[in-house]
Please model this.
Amino acid sequence: MDERAHRQPEPPGGVHSTPLVRGLAVWGPGVLVMLADTDAGNVVTAAQSGALWGYRLLGPLLLLIPMLYLVQELTVRLGVHTGRGHAELIRLRYGLGWALVAVAGLAVAAIGSLVTEMTGVAGIGELFGVSRSLTLPLAAAAILAIVGSGSYRRVERAAIVIGLFELAFFAVAWSARPSLAQIGRDAIRMPFDDRAFLWMVAAIIGATFNPWMVFYQQSATVDKGLQSRDLGHARVDTAIGAVLTQCLTGAVLIAGAATFFYGAEPGRLASVGDVSRALTPTLGVFAGKVVFGAGVLGASMVAAIVASLALAWGIGELFGYQRTLERHPFAAGWFYGAYALLVGGAAFAVWGSSDLVGLNIAAQVLNAFLMPLVVGFLVALAARALPEASRLRGPRLALTIAVCALVSGIGVIGGIAGLL
Model:
């Protein structure tokens, strides 16, 4: 049964919008969540993968595109057909206890994301000679100010513009002139018996599948008022975002491999700023720093806000608050106080770390450990909460479970192997 009857939002583009205007108005959540996914954690993990293992992880990274689309398309379908956010739907279907478990996982992922974005801010600051003692408090204050003001609409509009800086990575990959023969040789030489390689595989998987992406896109789909007839446009929005984020990440990996593994530079990144050296051959030293810094810093801030909004929506849905960008739970003093502590804690953890790259990659592996919980709830809801005609069932359900179990299993095994 369609559960949308509990709310009647205004359709995107307005009540009397034309099909073209409505189609364009649907776009946004899919591309935005993917741009937020191409954050400091993604960029640094991809660059380190290329620096340490050449092109070996390029194939697995691109092979994750179908599953990334599969996961995020399910969130869109659930939002469109049920009219409920992810945490809200779990609470209604499985009870408050399981919803608490899901939101706890979201909170852990959001905290890990805040740490990741702070490493990006600190690294870019140090690239320009600015101490993290200055950049981290400024970043924390900016995040709290934006979150406290409820300025999410402006952040959403700015995300596409910020993403344009990341397009420079395509030029970098092209200028690196990667050897197709070498890519082919690396593709068949996968050292799965090496624990360090498995750790990096887990980091790549965790960087691709941030748990807050599921919560954000489903709630954003509902908040935007998308309906069944918008599903096609929303799927295209999601597909373009999935391809774009993985190709951007792949471009960084190619540049990292060409510069650090097959080039003259050292084979391991010692700092976040080391990644900018891959831009130098194409854009020059100063321009390379500026473009890399703007892209990573902007994406980091957007990712921090999107993860924060996902956490806000999740907690609000858990306790039955009315869904809106401007109200609960950020209007609640207890939540804002707790969130301020989390932001401050993330900044302090990064301030005291001597290895920002290692801390960044560890945060991505944490996402890999959380992945079975997130996709497990998602597939269960798609099999039970959707209307009969749109429900996952039969061979498609079996294939979805098999793919999700395989990728989640590889991520968890890689993470455990790296810890041992």
